[in-house]
Structure formats: structure tokens, C-alpha cells
Amino acid sequence: MDGSLNGLRDALINHVIGSYALAIMDTHRPGRVWFVTNFKPLYMAWYSDLKALFFASLDDYLIDDQGRPIWDTPAIRRVEPYTAMEVGG
Length: 89
Known about the structure:
- The protein has one helix and six strands.
- By secondary structure, it is mostly beta strands.
- The two termini are 19 Å apart.
């Protein structure tokens, strides 16, 4: 994979069989992550206090139950079916 969206698409078409929800890191592009899914659910949430990005197959797994106020909780974002999203900087 060359780090491009086309390279990712080609790798998925040629090497992945069946349903998937994936988080893919490329060692040539540190700090960047591809989130890709066909119809399987995939959710992500950025926790600024931890400086960490979490991802899961169910949004319930990303809910923080430490009694924080609603404005302190992260926005949980769904990766829409049949999409690829690059995150990082």
C-alpha cells in the first residue's frame, strides 16, 4: 500500500474477503490512521484529556461512565458504511 486512498482501495479489493471494519496504520506515515468499513459498524471518539483516539464496533463501548458533564464527553463519530476516512496530522 502506498498510503493513498487508491492504494488502500486496491489492497482491500485484492486481499480482504468478507465483511470488515478496520483501523489501518502505515509505518511510512506516522500519526495517520485509515478507518475503513464496508457494512460493519465502526465508531471512533477522541478523548482530549487522554490525547487518545479510541475506536470500537459499538458506540456504547466508547461512552465514558465517570459522571462527566455532557460538554466534557467526546463526540462519538460513526464511520459511514462503505467509506474510508483518514485521521491524524
